[in-house]
Amino acid sequence: MKLTYREDISNMNWITDSKGSSSLLQHFPDALQLEKYLSLYKRAYELVIVSPDEITAENVNSLIYSARLLCNPQFDFKENTLIELNETDELVKIGGRFSECFVQKAICSNMILACLIAAHASNADLEYALEKYKFSLSLDWFTPHSAHPYYGHVFYTGLESNKSNVNKIYAFLCTYSIIEELGVDIRSSSKKPRFLNNEWNPEVLNDIKLRLNKIGLDFDTKMEWLIRGKPNPLYDEIKQKFTTKSQYYNPANYVYDLELKIYEAIHYCSYIRSFYLAHKTDKTVKYINPYDIHNIQSLVRILILSATGFWSGMDNYREKLQSVKETGV
């Protein structure tokens, strides 16, 4: 299996400026329109997946889309369906025809980075982690832009319908399982408790630090943990509590955000999962809100990017890809 690209011959996708922005037409251009577009713009590129069978092509296509969401968690663009580029007479065992090549439209900087991330998802654990990340976003999600403290308490955090609560439960559980896929769940037991006298058990803490380092993440890496609106009973119940306030902490704007180390965030997620969500629905589940889902999705995004080797250099990768698009070098 390999990935390549070609100019989009459908005449529907065009690069419209020097930054590589692409525009999708709603209708096929007629001869005069095509002549105009050719004089003003360049044809956009499309990704070609060269695959021995359709299932592999579908898996790669889905993996790239999941990685694209990892680059830019915006679930408002749709997963591109595969289009057969050429046909063969060979039959797959299930009885249908397949092509060796499949195309996917509209290459952009995020698509290039997504292909690199997908290529580095070199084992089944990472592949399933990416699929689960995509599925979690489909259940409950909001843009990182909306999480900015400037906007304060944007999303409703009061009591919601049972249907909404179930969506949140499974978005959270699905996302938590990514932590387990990557092998960075906190491992403690009654014989080896997580905390001793309200402090981390050194044996447990050293173990999670080593496993975070194994996926390329410094154990002191921190993240913003969003708590917006009036703090709810969910956080009253969690043991052990961490209280380092975010630099954006601003009760006047209903921003009660914390700054957590990654392993502290994993502990919070582990507690919520184990005591509230994983078994019989606990009464506290009604307090789970969109910010709690965003927190765990943001956490696993860091973990997956680190496990694929992209977290520490994400900004540099974006700059390099933009330079390639603008200069070709």
Rg: 23 Å
- What's the total number of strands? 11
Total domain modules = 2
Strand content: 5-15%
Please give the share of residues in helix: 40-55%
Q: Average pLDDT, to the nearest integer?
A: 88
The N- to C-terminal Cα distance equals: 26 Å
Main pleated sheet: 4 strands, antiparallel
Counted by DSSP, the helix tally is 10
What order do the strands of the largest sheet run in, or round the barrel if closed? Answer: 1-5-7-6
Instruction: Tell me the series of helices and strands, N- to C-terminal.
Output: EEEHEEHEEHHHEEHEHEHHH
Q: Structural class, from helix and strand content?
A: alpha+beta
What global shape is seen?
elongated
Low-confidence stretches: 89-95
Fill in the keyword field for this structure.
329 residues; alpha+beta; three-stranded antiparallel sheet; 10 helices
Provide an overview of this structure.
The chain is α+β, with helices and mostly antiparallel strands and 329 residues long. It contains ten helices and eleven strands. It has two domains: 134 residues, no CATH class; 169 residues, no CATH class. Helices cover 43% and strands 12% of the residues. The strands form four sheets. The protein has a four-stranded antiparallel sheet. Strands 3-2-4 form a three-stranded antiparallel sheet, covered by helices on one side. Helix 4 runs antiparallel to helix 5. The longest helix has 20 residues. It is elongated and about 75 Å long.
